[in-house]
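To: structure subgroup
Subject: Chain for Friday's discussion

All,

I'm putting the inputs and outputs inline so they're searchable in the archive.
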Amino acid sequence: LARINAGLEQRFGPGKWAMGFSAASLLLDKKLMAQKNVDPIAVTNAARTLLLAEPAIAAAYTRRELEAGSRADAPFFAAMRNAWHPDVSGEIQFVLKPHWMFGSAAAATHGSPYPYDTQVPLLMYGPTWLQPGRVDAPVAMVDLAPTLSKLLGVPAPSSAVGKLLPVAAP
């Protein structure tokens, strides 16, 4: 954060331009930008460049890129767009390189887009209508809702986006 602020101060003048991190977002001081009459897009782009110069950063996307979907083919863009919310996320959403994490006290973190953090077993157990089996294909946790709905004979939730797993196929 100190290096990002130092770089932004060189370009835009004194001030704490980068206020901190929240999850995978860099928070910039919009009030300071307005007070100094500085173009927020210029500050955001400069902060993104400085952030990408850090050894732990694999990718970074600005609010404008996330809103427009303009870098949809870029690495991790879909994951970052899914993790980003316009009302609560910062101006820049970023991804750490594999096996990096913030701080030194945490034993574990969640939320990286890497397989070691995104692949978890999905196990189901039930009465005789759930036969033993294995699905040897990629599945997602969102597949659980439509699959369980089918097994229970109830409509899937209206917001369900997963696919029906073969274990529940008719």
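Points worth raising on Friday:
The radius of gyration is 21 Å.
DSSP finds seven helices and four strands in the chain.

D.
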